[in-house]
Design brief:
The chain starts with a helix and ends with a helix. 28% of the residues are buried. It has 498 residues and is mainly alpha-helical. Helix 12 links the parallel strand 1 and strand 2. Helix 19 packs antiparallel against helix 22. Helices cover 67% and strands 5% of the residues.
Length: 498
């Protein structure tokens, strides 16, 4: 498709009311342009050179501000709440507050559910008690539970007292489940039917709904005790004889989730079986809700975000426009650990000061040893973390993995160590120690690559056994190992050989 056809299709979509995947990015650019124009208009209005009576100037300023806010409100009213959330995450704090205060209260409630935790905190801090109470009252129990920890306890208790008995039970249930469990992410909007009725009765029952819950691709079949017995797909409901019973049309071989199942593990099952929704039961096998692909996408996104931040040494997910103090508080711990490990590595070098004084070339070659091993170890580390996340590694396979990675490290070490050794020999060809320097270089790279492979396999496995996220701090520990051991091996070999 050429550029003109692409532009034409976008215009056709806009005219037909359809949304395209780039609408959020385009809306962000448009909103940023709008805010830039607002700033320019405000500067012109406030300019001392503006020929307006001082008495009329405040009136003009207020008029300009009102026009700006109306234009901003009009723009926001035509955006999807998910797009508003995307835009707010991409705006600096001052502009974010300005935009947030022009979002309508009904939309604000849904934006707070959609947006990530760090940004949600900033939005809530700009709201008064009445606004927060309205938002809490407008949310379903499961959505309210999502943001409950960020809203003052008094407001939550007041809203909870106003819920119906069933809503109170739903809210209590969601709040009681661990944050990473299926129960904390499940949807209570679920359509139940009985197995003894026929499909015609189900047709009449569904026509009583104004609309079906989102992502409804199947109905769940229960007995008189609300125990799940199977599911009826909409395909079977629509294509089979209306006089056929639900029992003869339903599927019994289905994936059933428990409220305490790990949501990240369940996400893998959704991917494996291409699921849209799955029933959720309690320990008595009673149907209590369902998990949809929409929630699973959020789980996967959150998991990826956490892994990305954790691997870089962040304690928690961070708002890109967070205050300097917040950013420092979120990053200090692993920086401190990294500093301590760097001092340890420097002391290793200090032990061999005499050797370095005799062979100054060693100081220039040391970073190569650590750098090559660090890169090789990082490849092993990423492979292990990913394999652990996918559940591909078991106790019986760890020995085989270590053997495989050590073999790869040994062969890579021999090849690239030879290349590095030849380079070192050529670089210092005019010195009598050139051959010994090349040999030291080769042996050090072989041994340090083996060390890096061992660390890259063991650190994620050990952290996983300790029920810790393998991504947290692994890269810092790997760097510590490859630097310290690399220097120790290289300088130790040099001391012996020279």
């Amino acid at each position: 498709m050429n550029k003109e056809d692409h532009t034409s299709s976008k215009l056709d979509q806009k005219e037909s009311g359809l949304r395209d995947p780039e609408v959020a990015k385009r809306s962000l650019v448009e909103l940023q342009d709008l805010l830039s124009r607002f700033r320019l208009e405000s500067q012109l209005t406030n300019s001392a050179n503006l020929r307006v009576d001082q008495e009329r100037k405040p009136v003009l300023q207020e008029l300009v501000i009102n026009q700006q806010l109306q234009a901003l409100t009009h723009k926001l009213d035509h955006l999807h709440v998910a797009d508003i959330a995307y835009i707010l995450e991409a705006l600096p704090l001052f502009e974010r507050e300005l935009v947030w205060k022009q979002v309508s209260l009904p939309n604000q409630s849904q934006v707070l559910v959609e947006i990530n935790d760090p940004v949600r905190l900033s939005l809530i801090s700009w709201m008064n008690k009445d606004e927060l109470t309205f938002i809490a009252q407008s949310l379903d129990p499961d959505d309210l539970a999502t943001i409950a920890d960020h809203i003052p306890k008094g407001i939550i208790e007041k809203v909870r007292d106003e819920l119906s008995l069933s809503e109170k039970e739903q809210f209590r249930a969601v709040m009681s489940y661990p944050a990473n469990s299926v129960g904390a992410h499940m949807d209570f909007e679920v359509i139940k039917i009985r197995e003894e009725v026929n499909l015609e009765v189900v047709h009449r029952y569904l026509r009583r709904f104004e609309k079906l819950p989102p992502h409804t691709n199947k109905l769940f079949v229960v007995n008189r005790k609300e125990v799940l017995t199977g599911s009826l797909s909409l395909e079977n409901l629509l294509t089979k004889d209306p006089h056929t019973s639900v029992k003869d049309s339903m599927q019994t071989d289905i994936l059933v989730l428990n409220v305490l199942d790990d949501a990240e593990e369940v996400a893998k099952a959704f991917e494996r079986y291409d699921l849209v929704s799955a029933p959720v039961v309690n320990k008595s096998l009673r149907l209590v809700g369902r998990l949809t692909v929409a929630e699973i996408v959020d789980v996967i996104r959150d998991e990826n975000n956490q892994d990305a931040f954790a691997s870089a040494g962040f304690q928690d997910e961070e708002d890109v426009f967070a205050s300097v103090f917040t950013a420092i508080k979120n990053r200090w711990m692993w920086l401190a650990i990294n500093l301590m490990t760097a001092f340890f590595a420097s002391r290793v070098i200090g032990i061999f000061e005499g050797t370095i004084e005799k062979v100054v070339a060693l100081a220039a070659l040391m970073p190569i040893i650590a750098g090559v091993a660090g890169n090789s170890g990082n490849q092993t580390l990423v492979l292990m973390i990913r394999s652990l996340a996918l559940g591909h590694i078991s106790s019986s396979s760890i020995t085989k993995l270590i053997t495989k990675e050590l073999t790869v490290a040994l062969l890579n070490g021999i090849f690239w160590g030879s290349v590095a050794g030849l380079f070192a020999w050529w670089l210092y060809l005019d010195q009598p120690i050139a051959k010994l320097l090349g040999l030291t270089m080769m042996l050090a790279i072989v041994l340090n690559l083996i060390v890096a492979a061992t660390i890259g396999v063991l650190i994620p496995v050990i952290l996983d056994r300790m029920k810790k996220d393998p991504a947290v701090g692994s890269s810092v520990l790997l760097t510590f190992g490859t630097d310290s051991m690399g220097f120790l091996i290289f300088l130790g070999l040099a001391t012996v050989i020279f």
